[in-house]
Batch of 2 targets.
Target 1
Amino acid sequence: MNQNWLGILIRHLALLVTACLLVGLITNHYGASLAVGLGLYLAATLKQLLRLNHWLKHQKPDEPPPEAGGLWGDVFDSIYTVQRRDIRARDRLQALIDRVQDSTAALRDGVIMLDSDGNLEWWNNAAETLLGLRSPGDGGQPITNLVRNPRFFEYFHAGNYAEPIEMASPIQDQVRIQLVITRYGNNEHLLVVRDVTRVHQLEQMRKDFVANVSHELRTPLTVITGYLETLLDNSDGINPRWLRALQQMQQQGGRMQTLLNDLLLLARLEATDYPSENQPVDVQALLKSIVSDARALSGARGHDITLEVDANCWLKGSEPELRSAFSNLVFNAVKYTPDKGRVLVRFWQDGQGAHLSVKDSGIGIEAMHIPRLTERFYRVDSSRNSNTGGTGLGLAIVKHVLMRHRGRMEIASVPNHGSTFICHFAPAQIPQARNLRAARSVDPEQADGTQG
Ligand code: ADP
């Protein structure tokens, strides 16, 4: 209570008591006149209280409080002032929300607000055009029921929103959309959808161009290397001065063929998101054959190549793609490790999924190169590359194969002490026992033992 009001109240009560005492003096009934006076005061106070209650409950917008004098008038006015201030603040906030909603509604990108369970709360017009949402019918529905795409379902539930995903629009096949989720507030989700059809088309043109050029170059190159081979097979009559030139031409022709094959493989890998084959692959048998090829590659260089893999290790996916990725890593380890060096290939499964590690005691890679190794044609040292006969596409192929198998690669390396390339596969890539039984019945020749 404010000091002013306290004074007024005390003055009122003092006046009332004095008046009652005066009446008591005249009538000689002090007690009765005091009781009557206080009773009247109480009744007047209760009446104002009831008026206040009635006004608060049945107040029309902007209706001023009932007229009252004295302390009650002050109370009514104060409540009215606070109310008006709240209304003004609410109007200001509402205007701000309206402005934000208007500007978001005018955006060309779709914006969707989802609650913590992924149910739709609010979305703009562009979201309706790109995803086919219907207002207001779809409000409160789970987004995964409305955007029915297995990759989006997996992306939404995995909860790792560092990278956006791209897919065809659910209502128009030829429109490509990119979706990215941001968490905010109390684990609510903000989903932004962007039309990336044009960028996708340009990217597609680039891929098609590379694939077509590679394809077109293959035939003339086969003819040239074929003739070179014939010439070298009949080298007896050839002038010795040309023999060395022919041998070099054949060697470079071979490199070009490997390069074209790698470019075509990359183009194929980029064409779809997940491998068309999703069969259980026997990793032990696969790694045994890769390690045996690696020993042949090492030949007289005498590397010590060890394989550690448990029997019954399987991965879901495409066998040729996994073979290509794993052999790139193992062959690189041999290529970039000096003679008699060590290479250890390990495969294991745990709660986080399946893992392949290729560790070598080779030349290693400086830290600054590591983030760029999977770029096409990126080489740590180009002069080194021509000696090893690499195409510069090996790790790009590994990256794409891993992406298509829900995998990722981790690279650790210390210059002159060796490198470790680890491929991590999500638990979803380990086939169920039921599928394995089916796979085994097709391929009864099963490998066993733990050392390759
Ligand atoms: P390349 O055909 O040149 O081997 P990759 O894409 O397979 O192409 O590898 C890219 C580059 O990464 C290589 O040129 C090499 O410099 C480096 N690199 C790859 N694997 C290793 C390794 N095990 N040890 C050292 N350097 C490596």
Note: Residues 328, 332-333, 336, 360, 362-365, 373, 379-380, 385, 390-396, 419 surround adenosine-5'-diphosphate (CB under 6 Å).
Target 2
Amino acid sequence: MILVTGGAGFIGANFILDWLRLNDEPVINLDKLTYAGNLNTLKELESDTRHIFIKGDIGDSQLVENILDKYKPRAVINFAAESHVDRSILEPHAFLQTNVIGTFNLLESVKKYWTNLPNSNEFRFLHVSTDEVYGSLERTEPAFTEGHKYEPNSPYSASKAASDHFVRAYHHTYGLPVLTTNCSNNYGPFHFPEKLIPLMIINALSGKGLPVYGDGQQIRDWLYVKDHCAAIRCVLAGGKVGETYNIGGWNEKPNIEIVNTICELLDELRPRADGKPYAKQIQYVADRPGHDRRYAVDANKIECQLDWRPAETFETGIRKTVQWYLDNQVWVENVQSGAYRTWISKNYAER
Ligand code: NAD
Ligand code: DAU
């Protein structure tokens, strides 16, 4: 039995779906179901007894302690977080509450549980983090290694950096057997449509503008979500306690190239009724405040020490992703309704 937090979100849900496709070890899924959590994503597990869903907050110590005592998981994998940089700029409080205080409370609950475990050496707390904690790179600088200094620039990355430091401290001070992963930008099925790739696909299909921030030359390093999930399974199985592992697919791309690729794929797979290219919908808009210019992950450590390699190239992964959104319009409509729609209209006149 493992406990996954944030398992109704983009990466957590992909992780659970893949985990249960690959083996029968049950998963408890603790998720607060914020605007970003969606049980429709886990529809195929509705009557699967290997998936135990519990709605709740990682910061609710009583609830978490009850779950740990009742189910006795051999590992906790912490995906739960507020994850969107733009939101962290507009409304940073929730990021502090969940990513910092929530992770801290979770660590405290897990420490209590772990201390009394008979086989405490075998337990693992795996914290899922991001490459954004390392800050921004110049074009000529080498990619982030695990030894790169922490220089978070947004409220989101600062909150994730703080949580990484608490995880490290709980290992160093109390001996909690932790593992931390720092991954680059994910994309793939069930990605919430506030993020670049799904937003561009969905806006293109509905004839809206494709808002590219600033000059569109910012670089992100893209990894297909299922490759990230495989890397986490690898780290859980073979990672050295107390260590951190960078995860990335060596896929650095400027944002405008990503948007153009999506437009070209849509031109091929679902041409516009008027026969014009989707790229006509691109609009350069105001830049994100404090926008990091470049992220790039050096994945040598996980590749050499744990023999993990991504299965998808960017070309295969982005094609699958565009096709997935074309085939899953109902999921899209579902997650776009309600609180998310109200928030978007309040904050982005152009969307
Ligand atoms: P997401 O926003 O899609 O999902 C987050 C999930 O956490 C949601 O289901 C939400 O309901 C849940 N949640 C939020 N606050 C909670 C709380 N207090 N208690 C319990 N559940 C709560 O995020 P994602 O993109 O799936 O990211 C998952 C993790 O991976 C995050 O920790 C993020 O920092 C990290 N990460 C994301 C990326 C990426 O590109 N998306 C890359 C690297 C690392
Ligand atoms: O690097 C890992 C991180 O990647 C994760 O830790 C975060 O949780 C995840 O959200 C992601 O952060 P980014 O800020 O890089 O992702 P986002 O999809 O929001 O933006 C990607 C790039 O595209 C970024 O340079 C901003 C730009 N952008 C984004 C949006 C939403 C646009 O130009 N237009 C847009 O409308």
Note: The chain has a mean pLDDT of 96.
